Structure formats: C-alpha cells, structure tokens
Amino acid sequence: MKEKPYEERLLILYASQTGNAIDVAERLGREADRRRCPVTVLSIDDFDPRNLPDERTVIFVVSTTGHGDSPDSIKGFWRFLLQKNLSKDWLKGVDYAVFGLGDSSYQKYNFVAKKLDRRLLDLGATAIVERGLGDDQHPAGYDGALDPWISTLWNAIYQKHPRLFPNGPDILTSGASMLDQPKVRITYHSINDGTFECSSAADFKFLEMQIDKTRSMSPGRYSLKSRPDCFLKMIKNYPLTREGCGKDVRHFEFEAVSSSIEYEVGDVVEVLPGQDPTSVDAFITRCNLNPDSYITVELIEEKDRVGNSFERNWKVPVKLKNFVEYTMDVASASPRRYFFEVMSFFASSEHEKERLQYFASSEGRDDLYEYNQKERRTVLEVLNDFPSVQMPFEWLVQLVPPLKTRAFSIASSNSAHPNQVHLTVSVVSWKTPYKRTRKGLCSTWLAGIDPQQRVLVPAWFRKGYLPPPPPSLPLILIGPGTGCAPFRGFLEERVLQSKSGPTAPVLFFFGCRNEENDFLYKDFWLHLQKAGVFLEEYGGGFYVAFSRDQPQKVYVQHKMREQSGKIWTLFAQGAAVYVAGSANKMPADVLSAFEEIMGQRSGEEAGLRYFRALVKAGKYHVEAWS
Fold it and tell me: How far is residue 385 CA from its own chain's centroid?
C-alpha cells in the first residue's frame, strides 16, 4: 500500500532492522501528535519515492547494521535516489531531517544516515537541522543524542512551517497527560486443552510449530526470525580457558536432528536462547496472567489493512505462556523509556506514579540511565520495583523487548564435520556498578546444557562477512580471542583441500592474555603448524600475541609489524585479509598497522593507495562484534 502525498503534514519515514529505528520514529510521531501536528509515520518501503518532491517536511530515521549495511527496507528507496536522471533540484522545496542509529565501535559508524543526508542535499533538499547520530555506545544509548536533537528539531520546523504547530513547538496538548492507544490487539480463545498440542513435547516438529506461530504474530516480528532452519542437539561442551582465570570460553559441538545442514566457512549461525522457566513463570504471576490461556496477537493497524480471511488463515491461537517464552525477553533485556511512561498510567501508588513520570521525562534521563541501563535491570525487576503497577497484557506485548536470536561465527568446516556445527563462545558475566551479577542470556544457557540431555536448540544459518576463500588464495588472518572461531573452520577446510591439490600459504595472527589461561585451541594450532599447513616456507606462519605475559602489553598489531616482511610477501602473491574479533579498538588498530606497513615499504601515499585498492577489490574482510 503506497501513501498519497499530503502537503500539510509532517512525514516520518523509518528504516529499521532490529526495531530501534521504529521506536525512535514512533516517539517522534507521538510528540508531534501531542503538539497537534498532522503526522504520518511509515516504514520507508511503504512510501513511494516518486512522491518525495510533493512532501514539504520529512524526517528520516535510519539505522546502520553490521559493518555499514543498510536495513532491508531502505534498499529499494536508496536505489531510486541513486538514479542518474534525478536532477540537482529534484527535491527543491523539500525540508528534511535525518537521525541515524549506529554503534561507534564499528568503523562505518552511522554510515547509512550520513550517505542519505549527503544524497538528499545533492538532490536539492534543505536540511532543517544538522543530522543527529545516535550511538549505542553512549552511556544513555541513543537517547543521549536523540533528546537534544528532538528539542532543536521542533523549534526548527516551527520556524519554517508554523502552521504545522498551531499552539507552538513547546506547547503540548492535553494528550501529553493521556495514554496513547496500544498498537496491539489480543484475542482470547476458548479452546479445549490439547486441541493444538502434539503428542510429544520433545518432538521438534511440535517445537518448530510453537516457535513459528508465536514469533510470526509478535509485534516485533519484522525484526524477529520465526521458523527455524533446523534444530541442533549439543554433543560436546567443554571449556577452552583455565578454570579460575576470570574468563570462561567454551567449545560447543552440535549435530542437526531435524534436517541436514549446509553452510560454508565464514557463515554465521543464529540461536534462539531458552529463557529461565522460573523467570517466565514469575513474570506471568507478577502480571496476573493465565499461562494456559489461548491467544492470538495482531497489530491493530494491520487488521484494518488486511482481510479477516487472511488473518484467520495464519493467526492460529497459541498458549500465552508459550508466547511469553518464545517472543518476550522478560529477564534479560532492559526496557526503553516509553515503558516507564506507560507504566506511570497504571500505577495506583502516587509515589510510584511520580517516580515513573520523572524517569520518563527528559529531566530524569540521567537518573533513569543510572537505574535502568547502567544496572541492566530486566523487565521483571522493574515491574517488581513498582508493585502497584498493573499493566494490561496488550501494553506488555507491545513494549517488552522482543526475544532475539544471538549470532555466532561458525568455528568448523561442514566438509570436515558433516551435519555438525561448532561454536566458540565466551560465557558473558559481569558486575554492575551496584555489584549485581549479570549474565548473558544465550551464552549462559548454552554453557548450562548437558550434552546427555535432549535439549533442542533452534537455529538459523546465514552468510557472514567473511566469504569462503578458494584454496589458491593466500590468506592473512587476524583473529584474537574468540575472533579465531571462523579461522578454525577456514583451516579445517584448507587441510582437506591440501589432500586433493596445492594450497596457498596462510599467515595467522592470534592473540590472548596469557599462554596458560586462554590460549584457545592451542593444541589445534600447534598441530597445524607442525604439519606444515601454514606453508611457512612460502610466507605463511602462526604467531601469537600474549598481551599479559610480559610487563609491556603485546597485541596482534605488534606481531604484524614484526612480520611485515611476510605480510609483504603474501600481498605480492595477491593475498586477502580477514579480520575477526571484538569491535572495540582491535579492527582500527589492525587497519592502522597494515597502513603503516604499506607506507614503510612503498612510501606513505603509495602505500595508502595500494591498501585502499585492496579494500576496493574486496580483499579486506572484517567481522567484528561489540
């Protein structure tokens, strides 16, 4: 359905991959509506870009995913904007603003917002305010940049288009003290127990059906994966780090039990974590819900948009408990600020109501950060801290963070281990400022699985950022810590390839803190080295940086500089570079080391040109995670 252009309105277009941009766009829409501004909020793929010149005021909210990638929803819109037949004054008379959501730990921080801003300017549009860049690394998250940007935005729009705000930019209507309508409608069904049940709770077909039904009707389903590609059963679970060293990194091996699996080295597997049953039950009890109720969930605007026959075909009732278990992250993720605003309307205690209203205000943003984000309070903990609040289930379904899959680089070769997938996982645990222990939901769940038990792990396979190299391609691999995971698969594959023909050398730089504590896969790497898999005589090799085993810290980039001669040898053979690991400083430090090595050998400018050509040719690959 394409929107018709409407001049006297504020149009907000969002491009979201995980839901954050939707949250921001809907907040902008609420605030505009409370100022009595006619406003339309749309996903950018529901708007016909040919109508853009007919709009007067447009706000774009766009996220950047992965390593500078665009959300799927904006790709068609972006292709249209890049058409060469669009003139430099095509968007003359259109005022716009761009707010981006990104993560500054990645090199292409907010890349999508920046290139969209530049393209709109190139086509003749006028920026109302300077683009805003939300940073997930900011102590207050995206709100750290969003709050001041929004304040500036309303004033700037009012200066250019005062008719959009009949009462001025700072005067909110009485709607500010009224609750918005929930976007979600829940229907309860009278169904005899067992109508939709399967004979065996352990049957993966039954589990597949439950996951697919619940997640396909979740309001966050556009960012959720529903039907799993397969189910995995863990067959090995053992530590790679020394007990008591302060880190717990595990090696997991799974086999597919529902269907055969196919993947290439460098691919990624996403896992849906299991939630603690005690926490799920506690949430249901706290919210006075009946776990055995059968429900269907639908977006209200969606029901108005599609026919009832279509709804009946795919909205099969599910148990409320299953819906919570598979779609709502009740005991891991922290709620967003709007959650606290909505809670305030359902607090019967005046003290709790005032505190929640303060948390939801811009004045209370810093205190909310200290209470909520910094402590990583969960939805269940927040609800328990405000016992007088009784939120309807519709609002909980809409506002509780969705239960998302967790992505892991595959640490095996499918050729070496048919129908198996191996993972290298750091079990996440930390202390909050108030000394509360927090644990990663998925890594803790996986670490607690006993391979002797039949625990079914829902899994989805997808391409990563590390394309599988042909055996004739020389490789320079940099993978400190768990970043070594995909390269374990690369090297398993290369061992097999070497049995049927010649292979190119591999130069691998690994890094960890201590040789005795966290030298992951030590025996495996040393065995490959002894067997000559790296082809050291042709420029390959294996080098380890132990950062804490000497007074001066040594990292992978230091080892790279020591081996600059070998790096040059492999570049001369047409080598490709693969970098994997933490997104904090490592990728930037590695990039700087390469640029320095290039500059020393061929002059700074020539070295930079050579290296940029390497990147442009698709021979520099990075997969990093925060």
Answer: 28
* CA angle, 277 then 20 then 400, to 5°: 30
- How many residues would you count in the chain? 626
CB 284 within 8 A of CB 330: no
- 24 near 99, Cβ under 8 Å? yes
pLDDT for residue 194 is more than 60: no
Q: What letter represents residue 44's amino acid? A: I
195-217: string of b/e by CB count within 10 Å (b at 16+)? ebeeeeeeebeebbbbbbbbbbb
* Residue whose tokens read 């079914």: 456
Burial class (CB in 10 A: 0-12, 13-18, 19+), 431: exposed
Residue 542 CA to residue 556 CA, distance in Å, equals 11
| Phi/psi of residue 141, nearest 5 degrees | 70, -150
| 254, 266 Cβ separation under 8 angstroms | no
Give the DSSP letter of residue 273.
Answer: P
Structure tokens given for 15: 């491009």
> What is the distance between the alpha carbons of residues 624 and 486, in angstroms, rounded to a whole number?
12
The rounded distance, in Å, linking the Cα atoms of 289 and 287 is 6
Other Cβ atoms within 10 Å of 252 Cβ, number = 24
Q: Is the pLDDT of residue 60 over 80?
A: yes
Q: Are 511 and 436 in contact (CB under 8 A)?
A: no
Fill in the amino acid letter for 440: G
- Side-chain half-sphere CA neighbours of 574 within 13 A: 7
Q: Find the farthest-apart pair of alpha carbons in the chain and give their distance in angstroms, rounded.
A: 78
Q: What is the pTM of this model?
A: 0.86
What sign results for the dihedral spanned by CA atoms 228, 229, 233, 236?
A: negative
| 243 close to 432: Cβ distance less than 8 angstroms | no
**Span 245-256, average pLDDT:** 96
- In eight-state DSSP terms, residue 326 is H
Q: What would the mean pLDDT of 397-417 be, rounded to a whole number?
A: 95
- Judged by DSSP in three states, 418 sits in coil
DSSP-derived letter for residue 139 is T
Neighbours of 56 (CB within 10 A): 18
Which helix H or strand E contains 15, and what residues bound it? strand 10-15
Lowest mean pLDDT among 6-10, 94-98, 482-486, 494-498: 6-10
pLDDT score recorded for residue 239: 97
**In whole angstroms, how far apart are CA 300 and each of 179, 394, 524, 566?**
16, 11, 55, 62
Q: Give the Cα separation of 623 and 626 in Å (integer).
A: 11
Q: Whole-angstrom Cα distance, residue 269 to residue 526?
A: 27
C-alpha 404: how far from chain center: 9
